[in-house]
Amino acid sequence: MSQLLRVQNFGVSRDGFAAGEGQSLETPFGHADPRDLLGWAFTTASWVGRTEPGGTRGIDDHLTRDFAHGIGAEIMGRHKFGPQRGPWTDLDWEGWWGDEPPFRTPVFVMTHHPRPSITKGATTFHFVDGSPAAVLEQAREAAGGLDVRLGGGATVVRSFLDAGLVDTLHVAVVDLDLGSGVRLWDSPDDLLDRYERDVVPSRTPGVTHHLFWR
Amino acid sequence: MSQLLRVQNFGVSRDGFAAGEGQSLETPFGHADPRDLLGWAFTTASWVGRTEPGGTRGIDDHLTRDFAHGIGAEIMGRHKFGPQRGPWTDLDWEGWWGDEPPFRTPVFVMTHHPRPSITKGATTFHFVDGSPAAVLEQAREAAGGLDVRLGGGATVVRSFLDAGLVDTLHVAVVDLDLGSGVRLWDSPDDLLDRYERDVVPSRTPGVTHHLFWR
């Protein structure tokens, strides 16, 4: 079995945005509300951020419970790691996730401004400057034979799609328009020339799961 | 997180049968064709019985890839283990699965005719005579904190449902009538007094996934 590059539990608006404009420390998704884009996931028993018992165990849960299953490394963009831009002025920033980030594998943060690696709990963040193909090669090596999760944001997912490197893609399309922000695509149909797709409704009204593979 | 008892990838006909009549060495599902009941699963990339590369990676695959995820033991009925009835006359029978059964955990085979345990590859079959609750306790202990899969057949699933022991249940309902055989239920709606449910279509025409939890 080859090592797949997987996008999972990725929320986008009907008009194709995975985040709004104006990301800041207080608004990681800019003017978008993460409860709108990812609320379907928050209701599930297996959501990685769940702190209380309970949650659904239906179709949405089958998707969130796959988060870490068979994953040995993650690749993310710098804007998923933090709101800073340009050269690092403050190395105290170690991500949004506190002392025990949910990744629990090596994580490769793509940035033109590398900095020393950081270990937080079971997660080590490496900061790498390179092409999608080169970073994927590093992540695959670190994954020890397991799959690699492509964690976003949309700009990073887009660059890996354009390079033909994404094997499977789960995007939850939410029935709201953001108008502007960080765009994944014009339409979920954009990928149908290169991918097969299943479309299934979420339990959460207005949310539809698009599952792509090739 | 508590240890769940999970039924997974369980195929039944529209009229509620998980197997036909007349199980034999040549016909493990009696007069039912396993390709009818489980064909949706055979098409997926993660189907445990897949020997060739390829396969789909959409919604059906999210269900089959969950087969071993977080599972530490299986409970099955004797008729899943083999076609024999009554006292064992031939201990050479060691299951349908050859030298490397797909379970790769302890498996508890419920029978009124216990026999010595068998290890085949990474799977050890234990033969136990007891109530569903008692067998579940054994399986939970063997599962090392992980969930327990309730592997069927329908009679065994039914007995655990009646005892209120099943936590999650994935049944693929196939659009054909078997008329007779081993029955799981009269209708998928029978469980709605005790379970929540999602219903999603398979990629395979005529197959509908019913996902129950409580």
Question: Would you kindly provide a written description of the structure presented here, covering whatever features stand out?
Answer:
Two copies of one chain form a homodimer. The first copy, chain A, has a single domain, classed as Dihydrofolate Reductase, subunit A, CATH 3.40.430. In chain A, 18% of the residues lie in helices and 28% in strands. With 214 residues, chain A is α/β, with parallel strands linked by helices. In chain A, the strands form two sheets. In chain A, strands 5-6-4-3-7-1-8-11-10 form a nine-stranded mixed β-sheet, with helices on both faces. The first copy, chain A, has a two-stranded antiparallel ribbon with strand order 2-9. The relative contact order of chain A is 0.24. The two termini of chain A are 14 Å apart.
